[in-house]
Design a protein that fits this description.
- By secondary structure, this protein is of the alpha+beta class.
- It has one domain: Electron Transport, Fmn-binding Protein, Chain A (Pnp Oxidase, Chain A, Roll), CATH 2.30.110.10.
- About 15% of the residues lie in helices and about 35% in strands.
- Belongs to the flavoredoxin family.
């Protein structure tokens, strides 16, 4: 993996792909599958997501106030679904699903080597977490794995079906108001 500038992570999250979230608490790493997230702003890069007490990762996130958001490629689609169908309370998901955790630079939660990108995050706002289970995190470091052959991401449609990103259409020349975002 190589460093990804933080102002570029919106390119991975804006389309709303299914993501894998890692946490680390008291020496135990965990992974959960998440579909409810969104970019809040570019600078600093803020991301909002839903995580509730029904998730094993909730206690770790509340206690450590940090996580990693990993963006898996299509080749990890079935694993991502399976990760969401079991609890870290019962299963070591890294071992069970053959995923490699890498040390992050700014948080204790691990990166996932097999993901296309990993975004290290720290919780910056919990005002709506008690009422809506909504957390806002700031991206503090981001990594992209451009050497991976499979670069497509996928989206959960909310009913057990998924769409897969395909071709990319370049319209950078039309982005006249947002030139600083297309560099």
């Amino acid at each position: 993996m190589k460093n990804l500038p933080l102002n570029k992570i919106v390119r991975w999250l804006e389309p709303g792909p299914l993501v894998l979230v890692t946490t680390a608490d008291q020496g135990k790493n965990n992974i959960m599958t998440m579909g409810f997230h969104m970019m809040v702003q570019h600078d600093p890069p803020l991301i909002a997501f839903i995580l509730g007490p029904w998730d094993f990762s909730y206690k770790a996130l509340v206690g450590t106030k940090e996580c990693v958001i990993g963006i898996p490629g299509v080749d990890l689609m079935e694993k991502a679904v399976d990760i969401g169908n079991c609890s870290g309370a019962d299963v070591d998901k890294f071992k069970e699903f053959g995923l490699d955790g890498l040390n992050a630079e700014k948080v204790k939660a691990p990166l996932i080597k097999q993901c296309l990108a990993n975004i290290e995050c720290k919780v910056v706002n919990t005002d709506l977490s008690k009422k809506y289970n909504l957390f806002i995190v700031e991206a503090v470091m981001a990594w992209v794995n451009s050497d991976r052959k499979e670069q497509r991401i996928f989206h959960h449609k909310g009913d057990g079906t998924f769409s897969v990103d395909g071709r990319t259409k370049d319209l950078k020349d039309r982005m006249t108001k947002w030139k600083d975002l297309i560099k």
